[in-house]
Amino acid sequence: MEKKLKFGIIGAGTQGSYYTKFIEDGMVPSMDLVAFCDIDPEKITSLKEKYPEKAIFSNYKEMIDSGEVEAIITTVPHYFHPEIAMYALGKGIHVLNEKPAGVYTKQVKELNEYAASKEDVTYAIMFNQRNNPLYQRIKEIVTNGEIGAIRRTNWIITTWYRPQAYYNQSEWRATWGAEGGGVLVNQAPHQLDLLQWIAGVPKSVYAKTTNGYQRDIAVEDEVTAVLDYGNGATGVFITCTHDLIGTDRLEIFGDKGKIIVEDSNKVTVKRLSMTEQEINAGVKAEGTSFTFPGGKTQRELVEEETFTTDSAWGAQHSGVLENFARHILHGEDLLAPGVEGINGVRLANAIHLSSWLDEEVSLENFDDDKYLELLNEKIKEEGKYETR
């Protein structure tokens, strides 16, 4: 039989339960789920009853040190992702971190530097949307230059509706001290990752975030950010958790075409027959009438393609799990190297910091210490958790 990766899940909550189902249902053929870890006594009792053949732990260090697992995933609160990942990597255990890589750039930088020093172990991150055929195709179109150089990106993603009852379920939800923020660190990390993965990392950001705008929470539930990619290219990112009839629309506008994505499902690609610069140079004007190159009309210069892609429930996550295992076992290229997790964290941090300071913030020279200083001030104001 083909060798399987001995895998352990740290955190048996909702996400951990999904991964358990994917593996146990055979959706991750290169993995053997052998162990669980959770600090909740009731969950431990339930796990022992349901999976008597698997090792159950209440301390993540005991699981990592047990010799039972070769790799783990960290489905725990965000602040603990770097801590657990570094401990595991230091013990020679491969790590698939749940997103985000961490809450603030200083801890993620430390994790990345530590992971780089451990060449014999793999560090990856659960960016399952990178395994979505729709976004893979969009990235391919952009990377191949089919719409030319990017001039602007717009993403309105307000489909994260969360009622007050959602936040009231647990004290740690929507807190600076336990969760590290609101929609930017909980709901929208995938979009922040996809933006920079497809269009490139912005050079700076100017943002307005509103804490507790429509919910009784301490963190942001409304975000508007203007991105600067350099050379005049810009972007707008809007997200919130209080839009009952939310919008999900992404536009990527280049000098040779445009990509429009609606509801993360329907994609329309409009390609120009030449760059807009070439068209512009060949246009002749007579008053308000224009004659375009080759005697073509404006519409005739555009070719349009529309497509959708199907992705079965669980296929994106299970695909990342399988890719992680096959990378370790067979050297398959990683879909989402862990080191890239800092890009989305830095962008979220920069959006926060820009709003807090009411000024444009550089991502190229991001002030890690300043962000942590102001984050700790907010944690102190909450008065519930220790500073970081």
Walk me through the structure:
It is globular, with a radius of gyration of 23 Å. It is α/β, with parallel strands linked by helices. Strand 9 and strand 10 (233-240) form a beta hairpin. The protein is built from twelve helices and 17 strands. Strands 16-13-12-11-7-10-9-8-17 form a nine-stranded mixed β-sheet. The chain has two domains: 5-129 and 314-336, Rossmann fold (3-Layer(aba) Sandwich); 130-312 and 343-382, Dihydrodipicolinate Reductase, domain 2 (2-Layer Sandwich). The chain starts with a strand and ends in a 6-residue tail after the last helix. The longest helix is centred in the last third of the chain and has 17 residues, at 341-357. The protein has helices spanning 14-24, 41-50, 60-65, 80-90, 105-116, 133-143, 164-168, 189-199, 276-282, 315-330, 341-357, 368-382; strands at 5-10, 31-37, 55-57, 71-74, 94-97, 123-125, 150-157, 204-211, 220-230, 233-240, 248-254, 257-262, 266-272, 284-286, 289-291, 302-308, 361-362.
Using the alpha-carbon principal axes, give the shape: globular
Q: Quick one: CATH class of the largest domain?
A: Alpha Beta
Order of helix and strand elements from N to C terminus: EHEHEHEHEHEHEHHEEEEEEHEEEHHEH
Provide the CATH topology of the largest domain. Dihydrodipicolinate Reductase, domain 2
InterPro entries: Gfo/Idh/MocA-like_OxRdtase_N (IPR000683), Gfo/Idh/MocA_Oxidoreductase (IPR052515), GFO_IDH_MocA-like_dom (IPR055170), NAD(P)-bd_dom_sf (IPR036291)
Domain GFO/IDH/MocA-like oxidoreductase: 135-259
Organism: Jeotgalibaca ciconiae
Protein name: Gfo/Idh/MocA family oxidoreductase
